[in-house]
């Protein structure tokens, strides 16, 4: 069971002005140590190395997702929509607040190296021996399980899942606005109030009145721009790559039995992939940045060099490639080795759309629920069938290959005679 | 000697939209590891525990101070003012950029416990064996010394010092705008463009045209509001106090020869107050937060409890006091001891104006240069002689005593019979 | 009786984002011709000649006042405050919307010359044979009378009057924000959301929780700055003076039996002060500006010159005076006459605080209800007893005398030998 | 010849913060009566009836176009680009400021009815016996002619014309930002600073560095949204149609020798299409609104009804049509006549793309210069060849037919038995 707070609490928030808390359960969840840990995880990972304002944490984003969900539900209640299952209010709010609670430090690189997955960890935290679990169990014994199902998108009511996780969910709406605000890149701004006005529960779905179509177009256009201007920015990618190489190297050294001067719990468990929920709690970005700092003094030259690069922002350079010519890349690897630079750790080919490229592609089978428009005659239509602009954005394939390598490679190339093909590849004239 | 960059570089900044870099020296300074380290120091210390948006770093603030200084000088140059010593341009820019380079993690608490001082460290970094020093020496052999003098406010030209450090300097102007932006508290907004339009070099001073007086009033009013709404917020103060107690306890344990399970370089040097510039570089907030996390598992119960409190935001409660009654406080201390709570670490009386309360008080002898207005007849007048509103703000003494203690103390009090005077003090009915 | 609208209607508003209409009565009132007429009356009279963005109308301000009142009441209802007389909701909303419906073109100058009063006209429109009256009567036969009483501040419940008209009413809150937005002068911005959060009905008054005191200080400071930066700007005053002289001259000519080439209904009734409600409806700024344009071709040289000055923004110059020396002013008048310039129409001494200077002065007997703070113990205190900053602003007397005259006077003075005292007065060297 | 002002002047502007005037010629132009007249012409014609904030004038827009041009040129000068013809600075500034000086009241409707053209009038004002002409002639005897050529797009240097009039000119950039600001519709916001940073003079063209392509995409997307959300809004179109019908009726009556109760100069000249420059000056929106008010009391029922509709915002209703079925429309006209409603004045079919639909369509032969991107190898490419998003927007054909008619028609239809086809057409069930 849950109780209303005796007096509404607020958090001052630069994006939504205020975040309103009316339920004791929400207040208690925010005060758990697992939720407070999100203050020590950057919302945008390494992006602050490209956009210095992007230093905000998953803590403030999680509050923002909660607040947008609260606003949507409060609109549903104000309008007394029959199709809204009002008994699911608290479940939606809790799942919104907690959907990112399992995020680790620099998630992309860590997950890629060690095979963890943040959604699994969110569920483990919700279900495990944690403060979060204790607060949720006060609502009802099965409540933690329900929250975990919403996060895992297996909950039996689509309408609940889609508030937290769909093509137009509270998560995306908050991060676009928030990331735009903190980076200073105003492409991410869209008319949230307009969308909140036209969103409706309808026959088990979350839909939008057709009159709000232009607001949705604008939102999808913002998303498109933010992906290409911010999230896939090649400097951010470069930092991700360096970080991934660091973890790869450390893991390799660990497997080879190398003795680290600096090794703190729970890093060994991370390397062995045996982390418990309690150990996972200690794994924040403060720890990872401390490890990078200490390892920048390790005697292994690759590990120490890569860590210094990350800390001091001497990242890898890049050139754009139209396509990959494997023999040429092999030749480049060979040359790097001849210079004493290990291509395993100093060369990477990156293709943004390998990532979870979040364009709206209604045609493709996607885990994300599509955006549905509701017209005056109560007919539902998937938005791209009505909007030319959405069709246009959906059809765009933009990714280009990027080749990353250390700037020093160019100095070495300049002092040697290298093949014209390699010169051209590396943009050396 | 310095060179212009072949092409102007920009940083996207949410406060100033863009930050423009035109000089190679500035570009190189930003890329030093000492300057990059500022990314790992919060601009507002523990304030993010009160205003969750306040997660911005001294890195972005330092760029902002540089940018405002650049804008002021560029206005001076555009108007070709005779009283502007144009040869000092690069010195002003470098000092603006570097004035905070010596800030450590959670400066207030650390400085209070270990007697370090961030301005001294800024000078040591500028003058020591650092990348910053190497970049500055490329300008001229004496340039690092000049920069250090501006930071230490001993440089022989007041006009240079006052751009970086006065009652209306680039530092204050940036932090008010930036802290307002990131906290979401809009009291800190003032009309920067208007001030930039009326600022002038005049007979060795930085002055403002009298026609801009209202903009300055507005700036001082913003400053007043930010101090009382944000900087002296009792929750932020509570976090500062907990942090100070942690360092005090750790220092005490270290002096007693206690063996820490977690102890990394350069913490021992910090305790012994023998930090070198190289060791200071490692002392960032990632390290301090990692120490707090690891120490939350130490066997010393006071240290471990205080660290958990900070990390999980279970800070100390507070009550406001009109005045301090020493016998009553002694009685409270006694009672706490009887409950097994050490008042040395769990009780604190705080008075904001003990801090460097930054109200504009032209009458008092202050290290800060006052604000001068220039009228049509080229007469200079200190602003409070012209503005009633400034006189009003200057005269306000607002500080109240706050008594901080753990919430658990109240539970224990409730289960015992305690004196009515103590009940009243702790707001127990 | 009133009905809710089948579907909420919205107006896009740049200040409040959206204005929400939920009642048929409000919707119908907005669509009356008397309310639509407000589109043809500038909110800030002649201020657009100083701040070119200030071209907004009383129509948008009136919607804004309504919206703030609606937000306040909706907060009261959400919190189910016992002290809120919920049956007064519609009355408050209608009075908010209509409080300015009687404003005429360039109210200050017209009212000064012809002795009309906009509040009286608001009541006449509410009570007369108008579309507004017909809509109100559909609520109940006595409803128009109630609305008129609220506008006239004679309604028997203070709480209703004070929402629309007090030191912190919806009217002032909207105009500060709106005038700041449209002029671009950001001094008028204050934290409306914070004030909306702490406002309460309490024992027949509208009060503010003490915790919101700083937000009120900020609001009063904004008001102070807007008055001196915008509302009393000497160029705006100059335009008011020219306009007043035009009406004075036209009235004089009319009384002398002069035949105007241009004279349209209802101008003769205005001159004779016999306007009916139907005639008043035609009296908008389009008509007045057309009269000014046509009169700029009248054969009376004074009328034609003054009209050209207003239309083409060749206003009167001004100098600031510490005090009025009557003999010197008489001497100036004499000299003007000798130049053939009639001081009756070309000289004016202005003192801003002659105007309804809207500083917050709780001590003085004022028609405006004061601002009351409510503390934790349910005690009410007038704000200036708690806030030093409010005491400071309240005590400031800033007005200076301004002497207005045509620039051409200076040219004539320069070609003659005039007394040193007059030279000094007019700032001629 | 022109002189710099002794001291830079500024106008406070809500969109650009400040507008800076440095040249005496610009200052004098702003103070001419022809330029001041623009204060009495709405920037967005009848749009204020849809978006009540849209009450801004062509005066503020014209200042904004000047300011953006000034910023672009000042960037060119700061970077000392060889390809910039610096001798054309003043010409560009004057043409920017004056390009709209010939706009009449409610231009679209007036131009449609009376065949005037605002660009022709701008040239007539620049070249005729006007204050504007006198100020320009002080620069040089041929200067007015040059300004007129730039406005008419016949000036021999494309680079000069394209600053004022191209697909990415100062005019469009200002109006998108300004109209977005005043309507409150934030779709019009784009990153002006970014565009100002990447714009370049290059071999006689104004081009953009390819790195700024995303900012241009965003600008074009904003334009697309503003057209469909604001400029082509059916309520605004409805007001335009009513206005057009009013002028059509008045012209018809005039031709039939009808005696108007209200008829002022220069309306007869407008009807006869013999306006002189001096008469055109009197033709502002104050006059037109006064005419509408007076004509609302004319004895011709059609004229009087249409004028009341416009003033009191009882516009025509509309339904959307996929296509035009001529026989059905004829049937509707017949029915209207049988009800005594003249379809000539009360029925209209509107198709937005009949208007100057300002989508970016590089393929079509257009008077507007296209947007060119400059890559690292100094190659120019038209933007739609590089940007998929621009190609998408360019290809969209969105216009739908709208049928406008009075709401009263529906009441009459309801009381009669009308054909099912007409019922369906008018959405009567």
From TrEMBL, chains A, B, C, D:
Domain of life: Bacteria
GO biological process terms on file: dGTP catabolic process
Cited InterPro entries: dGTPase-like, HD/PDEase_dom, HD_assoc_2, HD_domain
GO molecular function, one term: dGTPase activity
SUPFAM superfamilies: HD-domain/PDEase-like
Residue span(s) of domain HD: 58-176
Pfam families xref list: HD (PF01966), HD_assoc_2 (PF19276)
PROSITE patterns per UniProt: HD (PS51831)
Protein name as annotated: HD domain-containing protein
